[in-house]
Amino acid sequence: MSQEVKNAIQSGKTVLGIELGSTRIKAVLIGKDNETIASGSHDWENSYIDNMWTYSVEEIWKGIQDSYQKMARSVKQQYGISLKKIGAIGFSAMMHGYMVFGRDGELLVPFRTWRNNITEEASTALTELFNYNIPQRWSIAHLYQAILNQEDHLSDIHFQTTLAGYVHWKLTGQKVLGIGEASGVFPIDLEAKNYNQEMIQQFNSLIESRNLPWKLEELLPRVLVAGENAGVLTDEGAKLLDISGELEAGIPLCPPEGDAGTGMVATNSIAKRTGNVSAGTSAFAMVVLEKELSRVHPEIDLVTTPTGNLVAMAHSNNCSSDLNAWVSLFEEFSSVMGNKLDKNQLYGALFNQALQGDADGGGLLSYGYLSGEHMTHFEEGRPLFARSSDSNFNLANFMRVQLFTAFGAMKIGMDILLKEEGVKLDEILGHGGLFKTEGVGQSVLAAALNVPVSVMETAGEGGAWGIALLGSYMLNKEDNQSLEEFLNDKVFAGQVVKTLSPNPKDVKGFEQFMERYKKGLTIERAAVENL
Fold this sequence. Notes:
Residues 15-241 form the Carbohydrate kinase FGGY N-terminal domain. The protein is an alpha/beta fold.
C-alpha cells in the first residue's frame, strides 16, 4: 500500500486541502482513495487591536507556510520523497469578514474577521432593503458599515474578498470564490448560481449619493460552483506556499470555499433533509432546505452548499472557548497537585463526567460569551457562571452546563427552523473538536435539537479534508457526476457512522436549561455593562 501511495505522490495524483480556521490552520494531503496521506497544522489566535478582531497578513502567510511545511515534512518522513507535484489544491477559511484591496493589491485596512459585531446599523438597513437577512458578519454588511462610517479608504477600493478568496488570489492571480463562500459575501440567485443582480442594483442605488468611484459588481470576486477549475498555481504562488522552493507551479486549484461548505462536504451532509453542526470556537448548524423559509428571520443566515443549494445556517459566535478555558484551569490544578494530566485525558474525564449530571444541569447557568453574540443581540461578551443558593453544584452538573451553553445560542436559531418553520431533518452530522470525546458532545447535541446525531470516524479531519475532497471532485469526477454522487460513491461508501438518538429525559432537561438561559440574559447584559 505504501508503494502505491509513494507512486501517487511522485506522479502528482494527490490533492492538498488547506483550511484557515479560527485557532488552527491545517493542511491535509489525500490520495486517490480520498484518505489522508499526511497532514500538518499551525496554531494561531486572533488579536483584538483598536476594538477589532483581526489577524495580520504576516500571520496568515506564516501559518499557511508552516502547516504546508509540516505536511511536506510528514510526507518525506513516511515515504522518503519530496513533495513536488500535486494533482489539485483547494483553500478554505472562516467565512465572511472584510478584506479590501487597493489598485496595487495592498490591504487597505486590517482584516476584520467574522467575529466583529460592529455592523448592526448596516445589517439592519440591508436586511430591510433586500427583504433578505444580512447578518452582521457578512462582507456586504462590513462594506456598507464602512460607508455609513465614512471611512477614508472607501474611494481606493478595487477589490473585496474573503480570507479564502485572498489566499487563492495571491497564489493563482484569480479573483474568484466558490458559491458557498460567495453566499456569505452577498445574497445568491439560486437559479443563476451568481450574486443576486437585482439586489446589486438596489445596493448601487442606495450608495449613489456617496459618489464612490466604483459599482459593487466591480469589486466582487467571480462566483464558481464545485467542480469548476479556478485557475492554477503561479510560479510566484508556488514560492509563497512552499518556501523550500520544491513545489512545482501549474497545479490546478478548485474554487476557494468557506468553512461552512467544507464542513458540509466533510460530513457528507449536502443532501436535502440533512444537516451538520460544526462545534469549535463558534458553533453553527447547516441545514439543507427543501424549500425557501416562510419569512425573514434575523437569527438565520441563508447560504448555499458548494453546488448552490439553499442552506439555512444558525450560527453562534461562541462555543468552546470558555469551556476550553475551564479545562485549562483544571489542567493547571492537576499540575499544582503534582499530577499533571494529559490534556486529552482531562477532556475525556471531564466530558464523561457531564453525562452523570442532572438532566437540566442542576439549576446552574453559564454563558461562554468570550465575544459578542448576535443570536442573542450582544455586541460584546463576558464569560460568566452563575448559580442560585439551592442549585445542585457539583462537577458533573458544572461540566454538563458548560456543554449545554456551548450550544445554547445556536439552539435559539435551530428552534426557529425546527419548531417555527417546520423544517424536517432526518439526521444531523456532528464534527469539530467538541465531538472528539466519544458519545458526549453527540448526546448533548441530540438533546438540544431532539434529532438523531451522527458522527463519522473522519469527523476530526474537518474542513481541510473537506476542501481536499472538493479538489478531488474537480480532478477525478466522471462526466455529469454530481458532488453528492461523488461523495456517496467514492468517499463515504464504507464510512463507519455512529448515530445516537435523543433521550427524551435529556431533551426535557435541555429545554429546562434553555428557559433558564433565556431568562438569565439580563445577567449577561449587566456583566457587559458593568465589567
